[in-house]
Amino acid sequence: MAEWTDTMERLVRDRERALLSYAYLVCGDPTRAQDLVQDALVRTFSRERKGLTAVTAEAYVRRSITSVFIDEYRRGQRWQRVQHLFRDGEPARDPVHAIEASSDVHAALATLSPRERACVVLRYFDDLTVPQIARHLDLAEGTVKRYLADAVGRLQLALGDIEDETAATRPSRKGTHHEDV
Amino acid sequence: MKMSDALRAAAETAPIEGISISAGAVRSRARRNRAVRAGANGIVGVGAAVLMFAGVAGVINGQTGLSAADADSGAKQEDTSGGMATNGGMEPGLVDPLPADTICGTTFDASRFATGEVVATASIDEPTRESATVSVEFTGSGAVAIDTTTYYVLWEGMVVSLYDGAGAQSSHADVPLVNCWDGAALPAGDYGLVTVSPVAPGTFAVSDAVAFTVAGDAMSDPFASYLAGPQPTDPPAPGTPSGMPPDTLTGDAARAAYHDALAGTWDMAAGTQRVVMTGDGADPGDATLWARNYFGCGMDGAAGAFPRQSATLDWLAVSATIPATLHVSYGWIVDGNPAVTYAITNTSSWAIPGYFASSGPHLVLVKDGRVAAEAYPINPQLSQGGIAYATGGAETTADAAPSAGAAPGPTLLAPPAEDFLAPGAGVSGDYVWRDVSGCWTDGNGGQVLPGTYTVLAAHDIYVGSIYAPDASVSSASSAGDTAGDTAGDIAVAPVVAPVPGGGDYASFTVWTSLGTVKVQN
C-alpha cells in the first residue's frame, strides 16, 4: 500500500474524532462536518507531500477544513446555495432569546455568520494572528478584524465577558507583535 | 470566560456521535486526483484540464471497477470488503480496487497484486491491428467475476494499454489495441498482455504475460512522445488564451467593454438589463468585489440595494414568460406551478466563455429596490443537478440527459464547445416555477409577503484565460514548492485555479428585468 494511504488511514483512525470536532466548530453541523473533513482529507492527500506524517498531515487537514468551508461559501455566493448555513444560525433572528435558553458555546457560535465563525475558530482555537487568518482565508486584514469584532460582540452578548477578547489588541500568543492583531 | 478554553470545551462536546470518515472514500478520491495531476502535467486551459480528468478518471474506473460516484463506491467497498461472496457473480462495484497507480506509462508490477488460490492463464489469438481476442482460464478454488477482469498490454514491461473488459460476459474478450494516452492504435511491435481478476477481497488472479506482436515495421521507442513528462512551457500571456475560439470574450476585453458602458442608476423597467462586475483579476480589491456588488438576499437580515456601478452591455438577450400572479404559501406556489419558458441568446460578437447554462433560471423578486425573495424554476425533465447546454452550434451535446423514463424534455441544443456560447447561439427551455424563498429579515420570518414585485433574472458569466490544474504545476513550481506547503502556513490550492499572476479574468452578473409579478398569500 502506498505510503500516503498508510498515513491517511492512520490519521483517520487516530484523529477522526478530533478532526470532526474541529470541523463541527467551524460549520456547526455534524453532517456538514463529516463532509468537510472528508473533503479536507482529499485535498491534503491529493498531492505528493514529502515527509508527510500523520502528525503533520493533521495540521494540513485542519487548515483545509477552514479553506474548504470558506471556499464553498464563496462559491455559493447565491443565497439559495448558502441559506442552510445561515439557517443553522436561525437564533440570529433572536440571539438573546436563544442564548438565554442555553448559555452554550455551540448556540453562541450558531449566531455567527460562516466567515465570522471561521475567523473565531482560527483566532481562538488555532491561535492564529489576524494577518495569518487573512492570508489563510484570502481576506483583507481589516475584514478579518471586522469579522472578529462583530463576532466577539455577539459572543459576549451570549456568553458574557470574553477574557481573551482583549488579546486581539495584544501581541499574539505566538509571540509575534502585530499592532492590531 | 476565555474564548479559547470555551472553544476547546465545545469541541469536546461536539455532537458527532455516529459520524465517521470513510478512509476508503478519501483514498479513492485522492487517488483519482493524483492521477489527474500526473496526467495533466503542464496542461493549461480549463477545457483541457477537464478533458484530461475525464480521460484519466475513465482509466481509473476501468482499473478499479469503481463507479463514477467515487465517494459512495469507496465507502461501499470498505463496508462490504469483509463479506464478499466467493461463489461467483461478484458485482463489479464490490470488488477491491486494483492498485490505482498502475496506470499508463508505469511499469507493471505483478507483485503489487496479492494472489490467492486461483491461477489465471491467458492466451491470445492472432491479433489484428485493431484488437486481440484474449481468453483467460482459471484454475484452483474460488470464483472469479469475468466482467471485472482488467487487461493490461505491456511494452517492455510498461503499461501502454488497458481495457476493463467492459461488457465481457465470458472468459473471452476482444481487447482493443489502442494506447491508453490518446487512444491511438498501438504501433507495430512486440507486446505482452496480462490479465488481473479480483477473486476475493484483496486477492487477485494475475496471469503471466502472454506475448503477441502487432505486425509492421517496429519503431525503436514508439511511446517516447507520451513519456516526455511535464514540458516546461511559457505560460500564455494574459489576454491570449489558448485553445479557445478566436472571438472569445477575454477578461481584458470584457473589462474594457464594461468600463466603457457604465451607466447610472437602474430603474429595473421591464425589458431593461444591467451587467455588474463581480470579480476582476486586475483589481487588487477583487477579494471583496463580489461582496460589494452582491445583490440578493441580505446575509445579515438586511438586503442591499442594487450595485451603484453597472453597465449596459449587449451581451445576452434574455426572455421569459412569467405569470402575472403567484399564490404563495410558506414559500410554495399553491395555485398550480406556472410554466416559465426561458431563452437566452448571445447577442454579442464574442464567444462567451465560462457560460454554464444551469439547470434552471435564477430569479429574484425585488421590492423597493432590494431583493425580497429568490426563486429557481426547475426543469423536471432533467436529473437533479444536471447541467444542460443549449442551442446554436454545430455539435450537439447535453451533459444532463433526461432521466430514464421521463417524458421528452425541452429541446436542448448545445453550443459549439461546451464552455462557450457562440455569437448568435442561445439556450432555451421550459421550466416549472414551484417555490419562492423569501429573504430572512427581522420582520417577515422568511415569508414572501403579498405585494407587487419586480422580477429579475440573473446570469453569471466568467471570462478568464489562464487556468492550470494546480497552481503548483504552473509558475509557482519553478521556484520550488509553493509557500502553501510550508508547515504552519498552509494554503491548499484548488485543483483548477487561475494561474497566479494570470490576472485576465473577470466575472459578471447579467441582470434582466422580466417585469412584475403580484404575490398573493
Sum up the structure in keywords.
heterodimer, A: about 180 residues, mainly alpha, Arc Repressor Mutant, subunit A, 9 helices, about 70% helix, disordered C terminus, B: about 525 residues, alpha+beta, Immunoglobulin-like, 2 domains, 5-stranded antiparallel β-sheet
Written account of the structure:
The complex is a heterodimer of chains A (181) and B (521). With 181 residues, chain A is an all-alpha fold. Chain A has 9 helices and no strands. Chain A has 2 domains: 1-88, no CATH class; 91-164, Orthogonal Bundle (Arc Repressor Mutant, subunit A), CATH 1.10.10.10. The N and C termini of chain A lie far apart (45 Å). Chain A is 68% helix and 0% strand. In chain A, helix 1 (3-27) crosses helix 3, helix 2 (30-45) crosses helix 3 (54-75) and helix 7 crosses helix 9. Chain A has helices at 3-27, 30-45, 54-75, 79-87, 95-101, 105-109, 114-125, 130-137, 141-159. Chain B has 2 domains: 23-217, Immunoglobulin-like, CATH 2.60.40; 251-466 and 502-520, no CATH class. Chain B has 521 residues and is of the alpha+beta class. The radius of gyration of chain B is 28 Å and the shape is elongated. The longest helix of chain B is centred in the N-terminal third of the chain and has 19 residues, at 46-64. Classes of the chains: A mainly alpha (181), B alpha+beta (521).
Write a brief caption for the model.
The complex is a heterodimer of chains A (181) and B (521). Chain A is mostly helical and 181 residues long.
